[in-house]
Inverse folding.
C-alpha cells in the first residue's frame, strides 16, 4: 500500500508542477506546492531539495517566489539556524488575488493605450473597449469567488482582500 500512496503523491506533485507551469510560474514552484499540500511540513530548503531531487539553489529561488506570492510562509524553529517553509493561510485565494492584480495591470495598459490612440482609430478603440470589459467581468467574477471562498473557509465575507478591490 505505501508504494501505491507514494506513486499517487509523486504523480500529484508532478501534475501540480505542470499546472503551475501552465500559469506562467516555474514547474519547481508547483512541485513545492504539491509536496506541501500532500505533506504538511514544515520543510527546510535541504529537505525540499532532497524530496524533490533538485538543487538547493532552485529551491531557494522558488521558495522566495512562492513566499512573495503569499502561498508559503517562512518560519524558524528555536535553536535551529535553518529557515523552514509551509503553506500559508488561504494560499489558493492568494494565488487568485495575484491573478486579479495582473488583470488590473492589463486594464491599466488598455486604458493608457486607448488614451494614446488618435480619434481616427475607432475600430481599435472598440476592440480595446471590449477587451477592457472582458477583464472587468473576469476581475469581478474572481473577486466574487474569493469572497465566497473566504466566507466558506473563514466564516466571514469581511476578510481583507490585500487591496485588490477598489473602493466604491
Amino acid at each position: 500500500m505505501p508504494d501505491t500512496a507514494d506513486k499517487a503523491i509523486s504523480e500529484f506533485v508532478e501534475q501540480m508542477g505542470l499546472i503551475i507551469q501552465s500559469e506562467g510560474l516555474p514547474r519547481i514552484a508547483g512541485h513545492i506546492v504539491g509536496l506541501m499540500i500532500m505533506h504538511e511540513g514544515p520543510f527546510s530548503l535541504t529537505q525540499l531539495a532532497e524530496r524533490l531531487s533538485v538543487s538547493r539553489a532552485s529551491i531557494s529561488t522558488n521558495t522566495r517566489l512562492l513566499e512573495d506570492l503569499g502561498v508559503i510562509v517562512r518560519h524558524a524553529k528555536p535553536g535551529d539556524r535553518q529557515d523552514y517553509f509551509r503553506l500559508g493561510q488561504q494560499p489558493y485565494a492568494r494565488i487568485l488575488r495575484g491573478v486579479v492584480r495582473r488583470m488590473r495591470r492589463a486594464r491599466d495598459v488598455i486604458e493608457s493605450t486607448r488614451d494614446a490612440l488618435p480619434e481616427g482609430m475607432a475600430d481599435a478603440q472598440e476592440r480595446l473597449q471590449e477587451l477592457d470589459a472582458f477583464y472587468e467581468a473576469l476581475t469581478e467574477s474572481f473577486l466574487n469567488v474569493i469572497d465566497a471562498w473566504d466566507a466558506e473557509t473563514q466564516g466571514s465575507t469581511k476578510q481583507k482582500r490585500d487591496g485588490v478591490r477598489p473602493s466604491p
Observations:
- Helices lie at 2-22, 27-38, 45-52, 56-68, 91-116, 122-154.
- The first strand starts at residue 43 and ends at 44.
- The chain has two domains: 2-87, 91-154.
